[in-house]
Write a structure and sequence with these properties.
Subunit structure: Part of the FGAM synthase complex composed of 1 PurL, 1 PurQ and 2 PurS subunits.
CATH architecture of the domain at 2-14 and 40-87: 2-Layer Sandwich
Catalytic activity: N(2)-formyl-N(1)-(5-phospho-beta-D-ribosyl)glycinamide + L-glutamine + ATP + H2O = 2-formamido-N(1)-(5-O-phospho-beta-D-ribosyl)acetamidine + L-glutamate + ADP + phosphate + H(+)
Subcellular location: Cytoplasm
Structural class: alpha+beta
CATH superfamily of the domain at 2-14 and 40-87: Phosphoribosylformylglycinamidine synthase subunit PurS
Shape: elongated
Order of helices and strands: EHEHEH
Radius of gyration: 16 Å
Distance between the termini: 19 Å
EC number: 6.3.5.3
Main location: cytoplasm
CATH topology of the domain at 2-14 and 40-87: Mth169, Chain: A
Number of strands: 3
């Protein structure tokens, strides 16, 4: 069984109130290293069998048409989760 990960983020010109709230809370909690925060969405799509180029292409198409709102969000990454585990 394979898994594809899709990350979606608000476009840079879109206000991100959740990110601003987190950015405001971090210094109060002692995390002063971070100057800004953007909050996005992560989807994990499981597939029966291996993650192939065709599966990744289908995941990208689903991300662009169903998982994100293309007016206000960008699909940032679409990748095979096993590649992420191997790299990590």
């Amino acid at each position: 069984m394979g898994r594809v990960v899709v990350d979606v983020m608000p476009k840079p010109e879109i206000l991100d109130p959740q990110g601003k709230a987190v950015a405001g809370a971090l210094p109060r909690l002692g995390f002063t290293q971070f100057s800004s925060v953007r909050q996005g969405k992560r989807f994990e799509l499981e597939v029966d069998g291996p993650v192939t180029a065709e599966v990744l292409a289908a995941a990208r198409e689903a991300a662009e048409h169903v998982l994100s709102n293309p007016i206000i969000e960008d699909v940032v990454t679409v990748f095979d989760a096993s590649d992420d585990v191997a790299a990590g």
